[in-house]
Amino acid sequence: xxxxxxxxxxxxxxxLSSTVINDVVYCTIQTNPSGVIASLPVSVAxxxxxxAAEQLTSFADNIETLMQQQGVVAATGEQTIDSxxxxxxxxxxxxxxxxxGSSSTSITASAVVPVxxxxxxxxxxxxxxxxxxxxxxxxxxxxxxxxxxGG
Length: 151
Fold this sequence. Notes:
There is one protein chain. By secondary structure, this protein is of the alpha+beta class. The chain has one domain (4-148). It is built from three helices and six strands; from the N terminus they run βββααβββα. It has helices at 44-48, 52-67, 124-148; strands spanning 4-15, 21-31, 37-43, 72-81, 87-97, 107-114. The strands form two sheets. A three-stranded antiparallel β-sheet has the order 1-2-3. The longest helix has 25 residues, at 124-148. It is elongated.
């Protein structure tokens, strides 16, 4: 079974700065088995050369890896505006902490992971640097929840 299903794609322009743009195909996928829906821009050249699958597979696999982190209960792709006023893609993971022996319900917070940390394209050397950064974002949110709950 593939690690993702392609739900939609559209050719567009990705604006990286006031002078740098990329022609991309914006691909929306749903990961398997968790069902996370997220989007990733893939270069038009890679898409037209049937080379997008490797990048999308790596992206989906990295999302699924993070879904296994302690406390992660859900995730979804979303866009935010960066400090330069440009759109930036993220995968936002919902992290949950359940205080031990508590009659209260669980507490949750969002861990926002930039897509750039999840879309290295399958290069093991780059993944060895980027994926741990994404894992740290999630672990830090979990630790903050635990600390705030007195755990």
